[in-house]
Amino acid sequence: MTHDAEPSSAPSSGPSLANPAAANAASGRRFRAYTAKHLDELTARAGLDAAERLAVRAVATVLPFRVNGYVVDELIDWAAAPDDPIYRLTFPQADMLPHADVARIADLLSSGAPKKEVNQAANEIRARLNPHPAGQMSLNVPTLGGAAEQDPLEGVQHKYAETVLFFPKQGQTCHAYCTYCFRWAQFIGEPDLKFASGEIDHLVAYLHSHPEVTSVLFTGGDPMIMGEGVLSRYIEPLLAVETLESIRIGTKSLAYWPQRFTTDPDADDTLRLFERVVDAGKNLAFMAHFSHPNEMAPPLVQDAVRRIRGTGAVIRTQAPLIRTINDDPGTWESMWRTHVRHGMVPYYMFVERDTGPQDYFAVPLARAYEIFQGAYRNVSGLARTVRGPSMSATPGKVTVDGVVEVAGEKVFVLHLIQARDPELVGRPFFAKYDESASWLFDLKPALGATRFPYESGADEG
After folding, report:
1. DSSP string, 355-391
2. Residue 321: inside a domain
3. For a FRET experiment, which of 165, 199, 363, 388 has its CA 20 to 30 Å from that of 438?
4. Domain limits at 99?
């Protein structure tokens, strides 16, 4: 791997965002990661006082923190921190967790409590944060039609008939962590909370025995944290699976480390791997996570996008709707317009999942729909490939289509874009309007129904 080097010293101030020449000169720098041990210095740079810095360290004891020199020096506007959206996207906030929990950890840290005691307190808090939403750990044993495989496959999830998710064990970190990440439990150092696999042969055998699977999604963590040599060992064997139509790579690397495709030592080799996937007759879908338009501003990112598209790969963009970071229509409109301008395909606006600091970041569904519609109506048809606001919940991907009045009752109109039960895909259903609901399970059936279509014994019709 070429991207796992930790910093040997504290970060320097780095080139200013207002100095593109300095930023470009720095673009070829070696990757350097900054972790919780650097938080005090970095948050002081954001103008936080000692008590505020301690509270942030307390949050980072419970939830993971990792950032790198590119994000610190070229994406964050430190003059606007701590309100800068990229700062809020990557740095813990003191009020992301309940005040009592933050105070408890802060007291332990300030008193010099033993690490074991601090970790025990942090684990108790984590257990209340729904570390694996939508039954993710149960999905670690692939199932189809309710029948479990005789040989469980670790690090493989088969939630939908045609799609398998694969978690390569070397890809279970990221170039930087997002504060809202729904997979935060993968990054806190607890082996029992991780799901990953190093056995690509097992996945290939599974695909041969399940020809209905036409798409494999590499996810994590971030698969693009892996060097080309490791990535090739996972991808190359899939090219001989005739029933496989597409290979997807879910990644934040374009936003957090575009050097991966431009100046890293194996950048060219990685692009040649992408070309081999396309030449083998597979669709290579590069699922790029962009959370804010500022992530697209550096010329280096735009160069990386051009190089990836030049391999024949299709870049599709997606992100969750996050309070304090991108919760207004103008931000999404700008982001989608920029993506289309650079040849990328807007794909999803997600709703923040019911895990981690959801209460801090979540946007009510009614407001989420307003934001989506406010942006959607102002972009061209080329950007209207995007779907949302969508919840990746236990039954599938549920989208809010609108708010209407039916038979005198105000309701949400929803449908399943994807479902564990394929018969439910595209079928509209209704939920009682609730202006405070922020997740699927906050909703109640409407129009006399007692259950939603995906629930056992659901009303017919």
Report:
1. SSSHHHH---HHHHHHHHHHHHTTS-GGGTT-EEEEE
2. no
3. 165
4. 20-126
